[in-house]
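Following up on my earlier message about N-(iminomethyl)-L-glutamic acid. Here are the inputs again, as you asked, copied directly from the submission form:
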Amino acid sequence: MTLCIRNAAQLVTVAQSGERVKRGAALRNAGVIENGALVIEGERITWVGRTSELPGLPRDAQVLDATGKVVLPGFIDSHTHLIFAGLRVDEFEQRLLGRTYQEIAAGGGGIQATVRLVRQATRHELKQLARRRLGRFLEFGVTTVEIKSGYGLSVADEIKSLEVIAELNAEGPLELVPTFLGAHAVPAEFRNDREGYLHLLLDEMLPEVARRGLAEFCDVFCETGVFSLQESRRILRRASELGLRPKLHADELTPLGGAELAAELRAVSADHLLCVSEAGISALAEAGVVATLLPGTAFFLGLAYAPARKLIDGGAVVALASDCNPGTCPTENLPLIGAMACAQMKMLPAETITALTLHAAAALGRADRLGSLEPGKQADVIMCDIPDYRLLFYHFGVNHVERVVKRGRVVHVAGAGTAAGAIGCGEG
Ligand code: NIG
Ligand code: FE
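Thanks, got it. Here's what our run produced:
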């Protein structure tokens, strides 16, 4: 089956010569082809160029007209905590009254509050909740989503969460990438036995997750009062031995040195980085660890944003993601995250598009297959009802996405009714 999209006001290719990451001046060039077109055969892109140069198409080719619209790679959200039950709106209000995220967590709220609800939830309930969230992601043009476990914190409940991800991935149309985050917190029952929980993580959970092939990556919440640098190193080394690639929640709330650890371990990505040090920036740039920034979290917690400019100008590969979770960033609006990156972190729209596509793919080890509109890449493509890609972030907070193509198939048309159903009511 052939699908052709033509007459696009702008076809934003992101990359044009097979590059997996972009640095420096190249980042300011989003690879825009005016009056652009692309041809898809089956699940792959086979041709990209100007509409006037389109090759002949088979008689039964499906043709989409993109006059006045922008066509770009599907967005990739490389950092979410999507498997959760319940909301934490009371904590939101408490923070507005002056309590900090850490104070709320120390009082038994925070991650532990969600853990209690996830443990009570059935597989079916977790799946229903996540399915609705994924439907919203799709409406915002997101075609690939990384999802972490980490609200189960027992062998059974972590496996339950990861199995839900696997089942939703099989359902499609979104492509899901599972990450094991058993080291999200020490659960309440191990409060006085950290070593006991580390033993459970290292000797039971990780081997079981690896044996069943339930996760591709292993992440750790490396943070003051959560997991130390030393504990994080132990966990990620063990994960690597078992074939899970390391990621790290690094320097999110305090400057602990997580970025340096991520570089030392050659992690795929170091995420958050609100408090990253100068040395951490250099270490990430040198090691080629993707720096994944999550400005929605700084926005929602009222914290200072990560130093995106310093990272980019220092040669780091910057990706952007939502962090979608009930505590620090309850949203599926990834383009809005892009608007925050521009307005608050001074990232240019071209850099922001790359961070939400190619570099997000790199943060998931998929830049060879996803994240740009190039012949040979998987046909994950979105069409937006705007004539200039910069409007995605300039005209912010609204949804410009009109059509979503995943693996060569149109899987969403705005206004045609979607999997998400009504937005906003019931359990998030
Ligand atoms: O990325 N930092 C750790 N995990 C989440 C927050 C999880 C929660 O509060 O439920 C984050 O911000
Ligand atoms: Fe996170």
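One observation from looking it over: The domain at 76-362 is CATH 3.20.20.140 (TIM Barrel). Hope that helps, and feel free to reply on this thread.
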